[in-house]
Fold these 4 entries.
Entry 1:
Amino acid sequence: MDSNVRSDGWYFVFVMLIMVGLIGKSIHGQIDGAPMSKTEQEGLYYAIQGFVGKWWNGSDLYPDPCGWTPIQGVTCDVFDGFWYVTDLRIGQIHDNSLPCHPNLEFRPHLFQLKHLKSLSFFNCIISPSHGPVTIQSANWDALSSTIESVEFRANPGLTGQIPTSFGNLKRLQSLVLIENGFSGGLPGSIGDLTHLKRLVLSDNLLTGKIPDSYGYLSELLIMDLSRNSLSGTLPLTFGGLTSLLKFDLSRNQLEGEIPSEISYMKNLTLLDLSNNKISGELTFPIQEMGSLEELILSSNPISGDLMNLNWENLHGLMVLDLSNMRLTGGIPEVISSLENLRFLGLNDNNLTGNLSPKLAELADLNALYVNGNNLTGDLKFPREFYGKMGRRFGAWNNSNLCFSVATMPANIRPFGVKVCSEVPS
């Protein structure tokens, strides 16, 4: 046998022995060692007791909560040879998740978990009938050097203000507070979270103005403050959110005009300002926002002429909802060149003129609403278009609009539109 082959063979065996030894040592250490420090384990157990009740003591867990019998909703990692909790999820996330106690409390032990990166509560704090549950006084500063994600979802019994101390969580990348009972104003300190990428505070009871400081979150990708009672105007500082992809402020009480600085959001794919009190003219340079896929401004007293905007630059648009506004003029034929358009809502405005049959050439269009306007003339869409759209084609309440194919089957005729011969001259 060649000496090189023998040498390589022995080297391979030698390496394998080392690997087996290391693996054996790792397994032996996991079984016989102390995988989690006593301080960390007690902190975790007492914290969970505060959430689910004193009946739980973890006595059925062996050898530790991160080893062979882990706690549902607890994720760990190894630091310096010991297990530490990195992710804690409380609430009805899985069928076998631990149920929350009606008198849930945030014990100080939670904030002793020195490597905690993610904390979430889902469908946990259901009703304030047993007394309000707040998180304002909790020691959030203790997590400032580790925590990256905080989420409270579907906890209507969680009341009080959003803690201002959240602004001290300097490593925070995701703050999600959805469908809770939070009230009061938005903490300006959140604007200090320079690494924040996701800010979702939707469907709460929040009031007051949006702080200017929120426009300094230069790394933010998602901002959703929808379904609250926020008031005032849009901060001019929002022009600094140049990384933003999704921007949703719908269903609030915001007013004033849309600032032109919004157009600096060159990467924006969703802009939803619907159901507010925003006014002014539809003249802000949306034609510069070439990445837009969804533009939703419906149910605002915004006026303007659609003919004055350069729609051809918004070639990626899939959803365009400008319904229930104060728009005038005609419907530009250039909209029919938006090849990706799936939803077009222009209903309940003061639009006039004809409806271009070229809209039927949009292959992905599955909903078109122009009802409640002053459109006139003959609808010249092919039968296939009416059959495809059904009731998703809304053209009713346009008294001078008609269709000319009297032999069209009743089940595909445009609802609420007369045959042209029935229209008074």
Entry 2:
Amino acid sequence: MKRPKLRKASKRLSCHKRYKIQKKIREHHRKVRKEAKKRGHKKPKKDPGIPSAAPFKEELLREAEQRKQRLEELKQKQKLNRQKEHEKKRKLEAKKNAAKIKEKAEGKVGILQVLEASDVVLEVLDARDPMGCRCPQLEQAVTCSGGNKKLLLVLNKIDLVPKDNLEKWLNYLKKEFPTVAFKSATMMKDKTMVRALQAVLKCLLKLLQEYSKTQDKGIQVGVVGFPNVGKSSIINSLKGKRACNVGLARGVTKSMQIVHLDKQTKMLDSPSIIADPSNSTLALALRSIIDTEGSDSADVLEGVNAIINHCSKQQIMMHYNIPDFRDPEEFLSILAQKRGMLKKGGVPDIENMAKLVLCDWTGARIKYYSQPPGFQKPPPYLTEQKIAEMQEGFNLNNLEEENSNTVQGRTVTVTDSH
């Protein structure tokens, strides 16, 4: 016997239920209209147009049409202006990118020229962050060049770090390459400071002159490094006058410059090493490579964030004389208000404030120093034989003694607390 098929439940509603739902909907709509009336929101009235009996109807219609046409023309004009502005920005961006590519290419050629022409290469490091200023590719190129080229590390701006920190870095770096502690000479009137700087200059000059004697010929000394580590300042200090242009802006040195120190020694100033943009923002900020004018505001803000998060908060508060802050954005906001750097409506101008902070960092107004790594492992290309080759021809005992005198007699411009 077949089972009877089950009938599907009907989807139809009973009249009572349907009427109840419709009533609720009507009540809801009535409630919405009532609330809208209370708020004063009225339904916009439809434009009735110009009545047929109105006088001068033709003129009024013509004026309305002309007004409509003028608005349309204004919209089109604004659209064209926007397109032109966009095109202008695009061309300017393309021009900047082309200039950067050209600068990078010229810089690379300039550095290669300096490396090829040099007997001794001075890699200048900022004492605040020596490892961040080293270029492994350059060091490998010099050590594996096959000739008799030497590489010296020059630890510049030693007055910006505490004495014990400087000693640690000298002990760390000298195990890989001969390292000279250095402070570029500036306009100073204090006799003690001048004497200390003369001792520093004498140390590097003596080292180069003694090496020249061992080679029994004149030598060419190439000076290389990242922007703002003080390459040109070192040459000017050794020469005793302004022989090379210097400045806080990156890329002041555009091509190789030759400066004669004496009959036996020529100094070759090179363009800055161009860091790979793929490096971390902190690395770029610490190497003073973020351009405050050419870079995007987001890059500048990110660079300031990296610096503020990396430096001592107490020191930042004391330097700028500001209260405690939760994050870099609040720091920039407080500082902008304090200095009156405001936009319309009293809104703090964070973008321009970030640029000024980045300039303070580049100009060494914000104090910072790093610690040497706990474990030292030289790169694969720097074998014991290569280390011995780099040291050959230099009086390392004299260098260590001179460095010790430099550390003891250096002019301190930073407190010994981090």
Entry 3:
Amino acid sequence: MAICFARFRRRLPFTLSSARRVRYFSLSASPIPPEEPTPDPRFLRHNSPDAIPLLDHSPFLRFPRVRLTTLPSSIRVITQSAPSSASHTASVGVWIDAGSRFEAPGTNGTAHFLEHMIFKGTRCRSARSLEEEIENMGARLNAYTSREQTTFFADVQSKDLPEAIDVLSDILQNSKFPDHAIKRERGVILREMEEVQGQVDEVIFDHLHAAAFQGHPLGDTILGPEENIRRISRVDLQQYISTHYTGPRMVVSAAGAVNHDEIVNMVGKLFTNFSTDPTTADQLVDANPAVFTGSEVRVEDNGMPLAHFALAFKGSSWTDSNSIPLMVIQSLLGSWNRSIGVGNCSGSQLARRVGTNDLAESIMAFNTNYRDTGLLGVYSIAMPNCLHDLSCVLMEEIRRLAFQVSEAEVTRARSQLKSALLLHIDGSTAVAENNGRQMLTYGRVVPFAELFARIDAVDAAAVMETARNFVINKDVALAAMGPIQELPEHGWFRSQTAA
């Protein structure tokens, strides 16, 4: 789902043979979301590892109605109101089908640079007046850039929604990008780059993308290289906006104490200067598809106390029919951290083996989706002398999912996955983000009753079939940092996938 497991921002097609499974798993786009989905009987099939029958709980998953309006400019406005909210707060943002993946050759870093510059003054507001206006409302204005999306959003009191929408429309349409601000932000971003270099989990996944998608923009970092940051100009920023900030690629999403018709009217009046170029992100992806590469990036550093490595297989796109089974597989592999003190009793067999045998400081399965591909794997942190044994256990457990999985394991993993999805939408900010990102990735918001039915349709046979098609005899990408002399070679990991 778009709300889940797209883990890293800088801030990750084979079709099942059974026609029944294809119909049930596929999250293909549909222009009109169903308002009151009929619960599928399979939704009620497994409610606990013991399959104890419970009452139909789908009514609890019927959240407030999602409303969608497409303006003549092709900007989509989606709202989910909660008028009973005691706090009377709301969140509104603009989700744009544009990220570092769509940068022109030689301009990697522009999308993130633009995120910084968008708050530095417009033709109507200076940078200072913009900051004061936000502070006077007691609001929070923020943004983030990922490889495929850019977002600008505000959390406000509901009475201040008109002003927040006016601010968002102004910064996206009227930013001036003064030279002195560009110069200052170069320094800010370069310092940010230095900070990121100290965050090994960020760096390891940048290396993993570079290994998995060699020579493709999806393998580039979101910040961009230092030489690009030093030469990005106003022209680059304006060119990126005019090319990618277009009506068909924008979604305005609001949640909380909001009124749909009022939001539509405000957006229609204020968001008037965006290009209506019909080129979609899907068309750009089709013109330059990502190709998964089996390779590795190793950075040996004996000064680091622990070794970090991430292993990944090619995953699925957001709308691929295998995306739901792969989410269940991620849940099956699970995560574990020594500091939490749980391991020997974990539902994940991988976590139990790692915890019982003291093989790592932490492990974390991930499943990152993009428009045409994805990454499925595990990120591990371990003592140097544990790397070989940890690698053996890791590959054994990944291979096991292709041949020997119990229904009890899968039931537990489904329950954990559903809980994670629900916990991810706590608050109006999370709801607005969930809806905005799903509109970009699926073309609709998938109701939770429907999503849970799709998850509950994944049984042990489906997990094993999916694992065989994504793991067995498949290439791997590897990124490793630290004292990694005892980490097996890339060829060894590849050999462990053989049937």
Entry 4:
Amino acid sequence: MEEPNEIPQGSDPDKTFPAIDVDKELNPGRNTNFEVDPVSSQVAATKEIQEQSEAARTQKEREKKDALQTLKSAIIISAIAVAVAGAIFAITKKLKEK
């Protein structure tokens, strides 16, 4: 009697399918030996690196924009303070003249 995983006698071993591990196929949770496709792994790694560089570039642009916005706000506030100080000085000068 032949065993289920044996190659049948009288046939060419190159033309038969390889034996499978039934326990691994029927219980995938027990299978800890995973085969990794190197091409897919490399593509995924490349995509992840591109996403990280894109995120870093976006973050830099956002920080630069925030810095420019902060500088712009500081200049506007300073200009308003100088205008208010000038107005107060002019009003005080007018009141002293009268």
